[in-house]
Amino acid sequence: MCGRFALFSPQDALITAFGDIPGLEFSPRYNIAPSQDVAVVVSTDEQSLVAAQYRWGLIPFWVKDPAIGNHMINARAETLAEKPSFRQAYSRHRCLILTNGFYEWQKLPEGKQPMFISRSDNRPFVLAGLWDQWESSNGERVLSCTIVTTAANHFMQAMHHRMPVCLEGTSLDAWLDSTAPREQLDSVILGPQQMALQAWPVSRRVNNPANDAEDLIGSVAS
């Protein structure tokens, strides 16, 4: 499960991490919630990369009611090729979702404690995503996306049994490669999650998506 995350690196840090991709400039966000716009990188028909903002919550092109996107913020890696909602996007519409870290709620005797999880070197990174384009009968167009999740690795198991697929190295190129074979894509999302991560407890103010400030990622006593 991934229900909240953040992206706050300045443009120069994003360029250092991902290259000088057109559109790679976003305002700092510390509490990105479902149905809000998120920063993605997609591959165009010309095989070049472009950054944009897509709505979080996948709306398959064939549905009649776009409200379904509110329930499709995550997509299980194990069933992407089987579920009608994700099958075509997995085959044709893969994207990178940019982040500095994500939140998870750890169950403790005194209640759920929100934790912020980031790379151990504090650099921005990407989550595996799928996207689609939906159009209404009157021509309204919505570009939307979902975050691919997999079984939690050893580090994340103390907080939750699922985690977003975190991409790095050659897996980024493979995920956006329209010619990548199914076996390679499966290995990217179903293989071991090896990115070095760190986590710390944060304020329960993050529970309210109306709150969006830098102090939300600050460590607090759990």
Structure description:
- Strand 9 and strand 10 (141-151) form a beta hairpin.
- The longest helix has 9 residues, at 84-92.
- By secondary structure, this protein is α+β, with helices and mostly antiparallel strands.
- The radius of gyration is 17 Å and the shape is globular.
- The protein has helices at residues 11-18, 84-92, 170-176, 182-190; strands spanning 5-7, 29-32, 37-43, 49-56, 74-76, 94-99, 101-108, 111-119, 125-135, 141-151, 162-164, 166-167, 197-201.
Q: In terms of topology, how is this protein built?
A:
Blueprint: E1 5-7, H1 11-18, E2 29-32, E3 37-43, E4 49-56, E5 74-76, H2 84-92, E6 94-99, E7 101-108, E8 111-119, E9 125-135, E10 141-151, E11 162-164, E12 166-167, H3 170-176, H4 182-190, E13 197-201
Parallel strand pairs: 4-10, 5-10
Antiparallel strand pairs: 1-2, 1-7, 3-4, 3-6, 6-9, 7-8, 8-13, 9-10, 9-12, 10-11
